Amino acid sequence: MNKFLLFLLILLQSSAWAEPAGGELYEQHCAICHGADGKGGVGVPLALESFLESVSDEYLSKTIHVGRPGRVMPSFAELSENEINAIVQHIRGWSKKKAPVYSSQPISGDKEEGSRLYQQKCASCHGVDAQGGTGTGVTFSRPRDLAIIAPALANHGFLQSASDEMIKQTLLHGRKETPMISFIEQGVTERQIDHIVAYLRSLQGHATKKTEGKALPAYLKYESEEDIEATLAALKKAAVGANFRIIREQYLEDGYVEKGKEDKKKIILYFCNFNMLNKALAIDPRVGLFLPCRVTLIEKDNKVSMITINPAAMSQRFNNDELNKICEEMSVLYEEILEEAAL
Amino acid sequence: MMRALIMIWVLVLVMPISHASEQNVLMIRSSQPFPEAMTTLQNAIIDRKYTLSRVQRIDVGLEKAGYETDRYRIVFFGKLDEIKPITDKYPEMAAFLPLKMVLFSEEEDTMLVALNPVHLSQVVSDESLKPLFARWLHDVKAIMNDVRIGE
Prior knowledge:
The complex is a heterodimer of chains A (343) and B (151). Chain A has 343 residues and is an alpha+beta fold. Chain A is built from 15 helices and five strands. Chain A has two domains: 19-206, Orthogonal Bundle (Cytochrome Bc1 Complex, Chain D, domain 2); 219-342, TATA-Binding Protein. A five-stranded antiparallel β-sheet of chain A has the order 1-5-4-3-2. Chain B is of the alpha+beta class.
């Protein structure tokens, strides 16, 4: 009996540890953002022929392992080498062409000249500081017929994943189906391309390594000496004064108890600045998790507390530096509104 | 010996759950179109005895304001007997309650996103609330799974 149980446990253990196929791993870890067929979504499209024929397996593996700090793509460092390889082979299955193999040898060039050329030829898409295009993937960020957003070339994850040779080949040949053009066809010489590669590599030392999470309070809370009605009126006035539109006020218990029986000392005020909302959604479609803007008022022991989430703290969960910036601004704005309402 | 083996086996089974409890943001993709996914979501919430208190139509607001957008809604849900005592004791928790999920379309598919409720223990450090947050995580994951498989 004991031997049978032992056999059963070993069987269960081995099945729990067995590494699933690349397709299953892709489905589990990647398909949510990149789509089951690799056509992209919150994540960039992977099933582009020109992308797959210009990136090496090593680049894909390292990208999965280190991610893109501050650019939504997380690190999957918890996956084993075999699991990552299985995912890479699954992705590779979308292309009929063989994966290129690039030399890992550094390319020498004049980084000062490369910087000048970069500003001239690359910065309009990839950003002055090679920080990449705005937004993430395809959702809300751009027209769907545009295949990609310009990658953040100064990103630590990119520079750790891409060899000099791979960057050079991309510059030489461009990528069809994307706005990335062949530099040779634009009259840039191979030597000049080497300078650009040298410049990009020089950014590695000060490239984004990871989104540093300062310990921020999860919520913002201000107290008012006024009663809840007067505080609510002051809050509305402050929100409107900060260019927000009041969209709704309700009791916290609305929808949970019979109408009229709600706790009148717990009120939620919703407000919105649609321009800001539109920008935030383009940066990261998951931002709805802290939308719409709202403040909850709670009267307790003759004091009214105005409480709201701290957007700057919340955004730290999203691995998105662009979102962090807008959320830091939002936190300042929230504080101003709450402070004014508390006066 | 047998007890030790059983312990190892239990640990193996629990490992994926532990990993899920560390994720900040939970997200799934459903092959259901948006309207069907919304219906599945609402049914899944109600099936787990939560009250669906409101659906915020972000897309409608944006379109009225002159912006183009895909369909984008926020669904609020909770249980009064949980929301009331917790916000009575800890008013700051009111900023995070009721719970919510974000549903948005991505071409033919629909995406569903939620914050991991376990991270609410960073808002209030009350050990007695941890089982409640863990149950919320369990329920949120079950609801998301229903939408993912379209049931």
